[in-house]
Specification:
By secondary structure, this protein is α+β, with helices and mostly antiparallel strands. It has three helices and nine strands. The strands form three sheets. Strands 2-1-3-5-4 form a five-stranded mixed beta sheet, with no helix packed on it. Strands 6-7 form a two-stranded antiparallel ribbon. Strands 8-9 form a two-stranded antiparallel sheet. β4 and β5 form a beta hairpin. The longest helix is centred in the last third of the chain and has 27 residues. The protein is rod-shaped. The protein starts with a strand and ends in a 15-residue tail after the last helix.
């Protein structure tokens, strides 16, 4: 592939080799180097070649929103901590709480039940749940503690996405964890 040059600009791209160009016109042709595979095309003219660089488009707010959505659906870990004696670890251990859209349909049922139990003063009855880790039973106050821990985790993601949306330009590596913690 060659670029035919005229007045310092590419006049045409030609599907031929330099040997196919008449010798007296070879000074007006440069080899073409193709780089990348993105949808955005940049043509860079150098002294001895022309580079056609295909790159990804610059990130937009929609890219940040998609990344935020992905991160919000990763779930979070909840540590049930210690038993009331403060020495014995709670046998439920650490559970990963799923937060996909489908998970939230189920969790909303648990939230409603926990709220109803609290409203009638019941802090002892248990609610059976299944997390990404496995089954567990929780009281209404324990469920509220799980929701508070999840909210703290999720609020960081929301806040960081808003910060990224105000940046101009949006960093090319906006998906890097350093922007989200």
């Amino acid at each position: 592939m060659l670029a035919r040059m005229a007045n310092g600009a590419v006049d045409a791209f030609l599907d031929m080799t330099i040997d196919e160009v008449p010798p007296h016109k070879r000074d007006y042709h440069l080899p073409v180097i193709d780089e990348g595979d993105g949808p955005t095309l940049n043509i860079i003219i150098e002294a001895d070649r022309v580079r056609r660089v295909r790159s990804q488009p610059s990130p937009t707010v929609n890219h940040i929103i998609a990344e935020r959505s992905r991160r919000l659906q990763l779930g979070f870990d909840y540590d049930f901590g210690m038993m009331e004696d403060g020495v014995t670890p709670d046998p439920r251990g650490i559970h990963t709480i799923g937060t996909t859209e489908a998970d939230w349909v189920g969790w909303n049922e648990v939230i409603n039940l926990a709220n109803a139990l609290i409203d009638v003063g019941d802090t002892e009855s248990t609610i059976d749940i299944v997390t990404d880790t496995g089954p567990a039973s929780v009281t209404a106050p324990e469920w509220q503690a799980i929701m508070l821990a999840g909210a703290a985790d999720r609020q960081v993601i929301w806040a960081k996405s808003f910060e990224l949306q105000t940046m101009d330009p949006i960093p090319e590596n906006f998906e890097d964890d350093s922007f989200w913690s």
